[in-house]
Design brief:
Blueprint (H helix, E strand, L loop, with lengths): L12 H16 L10 E3 L11 E2 L5 E5 L13 E14 L5 E14 L6 E6 L4 E3 L2 E5 L7 E4 L7 E8 L2 E8 L3 E5 L4 E5 L3 E9 L11 E8 L2 E3 L7 E6 L6 E11 L2 E15 L2 E7 L3 E3 L3 E10 L6 E5 L7 E9 L5 E10 L4 E3 L2 E5 L4 E5 L3 E4 L4 E4 L4 E3 L6 E5 L10 E5 L6 E3 L5 E4 L7 E10 L5 E11 L3 E2 L8 E2 L4 E8 L5 E7 L7 E5 L3 E7 L5 E10 L5 E11 L5 E6 L6 E2 L3 E9 L13 E7 L8 E5 L3 E2 L2 E3 L2 E4 L4 E2 L2 E8 L3 E8 L10 E6 L5 E10 L4 E10 L9 E8 L2 E8 L1 E4 L2 E9 L6 E6 L5 E8 L16 H4 L6 H14 L9 H21 L2 E2 H6 L10 H10 L3 E5 L5 E5 L13 H15 L3 H8 L3
Parallel strand pairs: 2-4, 3-9, 13-19, 21-29, 31-37, 39-45, 47-57
Antiparallel strand pairs: 1-3, 4-5, 4-8, 6-11, 7-8, 10-11, 12-14, 14-17, 15-18, 16-17, 18-19, 20-22, 22-25, 23-24, 23-27, 24-25, 26-29, 27-28, 30-32, 32-35, 33-34, 33-36, 36-37, 38-40, 40-43, 41-42, 41-44, 44-45, 46-48, 48-55, 49-53, 49-56, 50-51, 50-55, 52-53, 54-55, 56-57, 58-59, 59-63, 60-61, ...
Length: 936
């Protein structure tokens, strides 16, 4: 009979140990093929089975011959054993015992590699065949058994009775190794640590009582030990981009002479980083205050809690969203995160998130969100105005950048009747409500955008009656130059209104105004010329609507109101004999010439003394010379007016200032006075009434009265006195001066320069010869004359510019006033200088003069008493030369030679000697000689 063997999977390693034990026993001769002392019963209730037997009430120890296999053995061994059992056969019906026998039972088992083994003593099962039933004795009672001999170090013996089965097990105390967490593969997140705990086990899988040495080994790239590679606990970390790896653990222990080991146990490692797959939003366009629901998807390693940290954008604070995971087709998980963001401000948001499990983090971008300001509804015009019975255009507009298009609805409630609505997406909507009657209405408009936001506004609507202008009102008589009142009546329209009065042929408006309510459109028009014209009034109200009324008007001729001087005398004087143009215009009230005007009158002329002038002449354009009614008053006929203009010319041959005035009843009360100054003609002169001061053919001094061609005094004029002799000419311009009694005159003095003859003449500025040409005879030879030259006092006693002359003058003054000892005053000196200059001028003009000639040439006023002093001082300082002639009269001349002895130029012989001396000293050219000859 075979014995049933019991092997549990976790005990397989023990059978090898049992085999080793049997082999070891055989090797040392401690056992036979049939183990001795296999069972040692304490008593037996049956004698049917010799030897070892197990009965139903068995008590005692069961021993197995042999020892355990050493732990260092490589394989287990087979262990054999035997025992006997009592078999009883009985009648099924009666239960009577038919027979009893003893049956020998055998069994075998194998030990594990570590020497552990286990076997089970099991009785054959009872059975019936026909009416006979076979029963094996049993069940076993309480029993205790063990292996023979002492239990080796590192092992334990276990026994168990279960019904009719007895189990004996010898277990190595280090027979296995478990790793927590269990499993052949472990998936970790990047940067996340993975902790593993190794637990030593006995051969039966129970915790080992030993404390073995545990060693870990990690192979693969991108992984590292975070804790020691030895010990019961090991922690590994997957670095970023880590590949596959293997973690292996072994345990070993030495007990006595036996050494035990367990493992290796391996775990395959895989690293999965957290990845962002994508995000979505329920909407990306919304208004301020709207909410956006976001979702974010990712992938990662299993076994971790994932969260999403979201930065919403637009300056909003970050938010944390929870995430859930689900198994994926691979070793990782899928990650799903969701959350909502409220955007309280407008702008463009670029939300981002960080998906993390606290170890591996990845960034991602969520859809861009455009947050628009709330719809900003505007109305154009803001306060609509229109006419009753006509469409009033109104436009709604949502401000650019506000609201979220497209819009779903836009409506306008005009304040009367039903609202007008449009589903146009916007942002502009046009409506044109019609109001049946004038009045003020309250309208309302609203819009709804795609975000569902509703915005509305209220506004006033002014409805007015249509614009109308009545016929134009005009005076019965409209005359040119007279203001005319214009009028028309306004009704309706949007006030205020602007209006303009216009007349055909007139540039621009003649009148304009503004009206704030229905009423009169007034204006004033001044026609400029007679004839038929069209008068119109144009009205434009605040809405830009225009209306117009017109009327044909006949304008009567204008009346003149004033006579205005338009051509006036110039500001400067007028030369006698020249015509002065004057002109007047007849104008109406508006300053416009009245062409048909004409009237007779008078022209009055009077001098500055109030007396009428004698030599004044008046001419009128188109008429000719006018008749002088009485001195200073001329008659002006009506025919002198031409097309409203009177043109006159006034001519006077008498110098003086005169005033003119146009007057007469028909000349609209006359005009103001006009003043004109007539002056002498200085370019055309004539001499009269000569006074001879020094007579002679070769020396002469004559004072001539002089006047212009009309006999007027000529102050400010000048004459040119010239002398020509031997091809040379000497010219002198002499100014005309006052002669007293309202007359003017000029000195014509002459002295021949040489003994040769010549001609002299006097001309005015126009070149007209007033005197001459007068022949000057040559000097008479062989006649008595002045003595030869002699030295002056200045040569004998040089005393400077005034020198001895001042001394002589001062001495004479003291003789005249013995009691005066004071020095000369500034006035005395000034008079001295002016007198000396006058003497020098007279001597230069006369070439040579005696004292009587100087006094005669002084002019109309008598010569001053100081004249003798002045001449004496000039002789004393060498300015004048003096010589007494045969007639006993002292004559004076200028000293000319500055580079030789002073020479007195008194006669031709002295002049010849002076010229010869000058040629010898300077060797000057003929031109220079001529210049010396002309020097005074």
């Amino acid at each position: 009979m075979s014995v049933q063997r019991i092997f549990r999977p976790f005990r397989l390693a023990l059978w090898a140990v049992l085999g080793v034990l049997v082999l070891s026993t055989l090797a040392v001769g401690g056992a036979t093929a049939a183990p001795r002392g296999a069972f040692v019963p304490t008593h037996s209730t049956s004698v049917l089975c010799p030897g070892n037997s197990v009965v139903s009430s068995y008590t005692g120890d069961l021993r197995v011959v042999g020892g355990p296999l050493p732990a260092s053995a490589a394989v287990g061994v087979s262990v054999s054993y035997n025992f006997s059992a009592e078999v009883n056969v009985s009648n099924r019906t009666t239960g009577a015992l038919l027979s009893s026998s003893c049956e020998l039972l055998t069994g075998s088992t194998s030990s594990g590699a570590n020497g552990s083994f286990s076997f089970e003593l099991s009785l054959p099962a009872s059975h019936c065949y026909g009416n006979d039933c076979t029963h094996t004795a049993g069940p076993f009672g309480p029993v205790g058994f063990a292996i023979s001999g002492a239990v080796p170090p590192g092992y334990e013996v276990l026994s168990q009775a279960n019904g009719s089965s007895l189990t004996l097990t010898m277990v190595a105390e280090l027979g296995g190794l478990s790793v927590d967490p269990s499993g052949a593969t472990r998936t970790l997140s990047s940067n996340a640590p993975g902790t593993f705990v190794a637990t030593p086990l006995t051969a039966t899988g129970s915790p080992s009582p030993l404390s073995p040495t545990i060693e870990w080994n990690l192979t693969g790239s991108g992984w590292s030990f975070e804790s020691s590679s030895s010990g019961a606990t090991a922690t590994v970390t997957a670095l970023p981009n880590a590949g596959l790896a293997e973690l292996t653990v072994v345990a070993s222990a030495a007990v006595g002479t036996d050494r035990f080991s367990a493992g290796p146990v391996s775990v395959n490692l895989e690293s999965i980083p957290t990845a962002f797959v994508g995000g979505d939003a329920n909407r990306t366009d919304l208004d301020v205050g709207g909410t956006v629901s976001f979702t974010a998807d990712g992938s990662g390693a299993p076994g971790y809690n994932y969260t999403a940290v979201v930065a919403p954008g637009l300056g909003l604070a970050a938010a944390d969203w929870p995430c859930s995971t689900a198994a994926s087709n691979g070793d990782g998980v899928t990650i799903s995160c969701a959350g909502a963001i409220v955007y309280p401000v407008a702008g463009v948001a670029d939300p981002t998130l960080e998906l993390t499990n606290s170890y591996s983090t990845v960034e991602g971008a969520l859809p861009t969100v455009t947050v628009a300001p709330l719809p900003a509804l505007s109305l154009s015009p803001q306060s609509p105005v229109g006419y009753s019975g006509a469409p009033i255009p109104i436009q709604l507009t949502d401000a650019l950048g506000s609201g979220t298009p497209p819009y779903t609805l836009a409506c306008l409630d005009p304040g009367t009747g039903s609202p007008l609505c449009s589903t146009w997406p916007g942002p502009n909507w046009s409506f044109a409500p019609v109001y049946s009657a004038p009045g003020t209405y309250t309208g309302r408009a609203w819009i709804v955008d795609s975000d569902g936001i509703n915005r509305s506004i209220e506004f006033p609507v002014l409805v007015v009656a249509p614009l109308a202008v009545s016929a134009i009102g005009l005076p019965l008589l409209v005359r040119a130059d007279a203001p005319s009142a214009l009028s028309a009546q306004l009704t309706g329209g949007d006030v205020p209104v602007q209006y303009w009065w216009n007349v055909s042929g007139v540039s621009g408006s003649v009148s304009e105004g503004r009206l704030a309510e229905d009423g009169l459109l007034g204006g004033t028009w001044v026609p400029t010329s007679p004839g038929q014209v069209e008068v119109s009034v144009t009205v434009v109200d605040a809405l830009g609507t225009a209306d117009q009324a017109t009327e044909l008007v006949t304008v009567a001729p204008a009346n003149a109101s004033t006579v205005v001087a338009v051509t006036l005398p110039g500001s400067g004087p007028v030369t006698v004999g020249a015509a002065v143009p004057l002109a007047w215009l007849a104008e109406d009230l508006q300053g416009v010439v009245v062409p048909g005007y004409s009237a007779a009158g008078t022209f009055d002329i009077e001098g500055s003394d109030g007396a009428p002038p004698v030599h004044v002449y008046l001419n009128a354009s188109g008429v000719g010379p006018l008749v002088e009614i009485v001195p200073g008053e001329f008659a002006i006929p009506a025919s002198a007016w031409e097309v409203g203009r009177l043109a006159l010319t006034v001519t006077s041959t008498e110098s003086g200032t005169f005033q003119f005035r146009l007057s007469g009843p028909g000349l609209l009360d006359g005009t103001g006075r006009l003043a004109v100054a007539f002056v002498a003609d200085l370019g055309h002169l004539h001499f009269y009434d000569p006074t001879v001061a020094l007579a002679g053919d070769r020396t002469n001094a004559t004072y001539w009265r002089i006047a212009d061609e009309y006999g007027n005094p000529a102050p400010g004029a000048a004459v040119e006195i010239s002398y020509t002799s031997e091809g040379t000419s000497d010219e002198l311009v002499e100014p005309v001066g006052n002669s007293g009694s309202g007359t003017t005159g000029v000195w014509v003095n002459f002295t021949a320069l040489t003994g040769a003859g010549g001609t002299r003449e006097v001309k005015d500025s126009a070149g007209t010869v007033l005197l001459g040409p007068i022949a000057v005879p040559a000097a008479t030879t062989g006649t008595g004359g002045l003595s030869g030259p002699e030295l002056t006092l200045a040569t004998a006693i040089p005393v400077g510019a005034l020198g001895l002359g001042l001394t002589a003058w001062a001495e004479r003054r003291r003789r005249a006033s013995r009691e005066r000892d004071a020095d000369p005053t500034d006035g005395d000196l000034q008079r001295l200088v002016e007198g000396r200059d006058r003497v020098i001028s007279l001597v230069r003009d006369g070439r040579a003069l005696d004292l009587a000639g100087i006094e005669g040439a002084w002019g109309s006023a008598p010569a001053p008493p100081d004249l003798v002093d002045w001449v004496a001082s000039l002789v004393a300082d060498g300015t004048l030369g003096a010589r007494t002639g045969p007639d006993g009269v002292a004559r004076f001349c200028l000293i000319v030679s500055a580079d030789g002895p002073p020479i007195v130029l008194l006669d031709s012989e002295a002049l010849d000697r002076a010229s010869a001396t000058r040629r010898e000293l300077t060797e000057e050219s003929t031109a220079d000689e001529s210049s010396l000859d002309r020097s005074p």
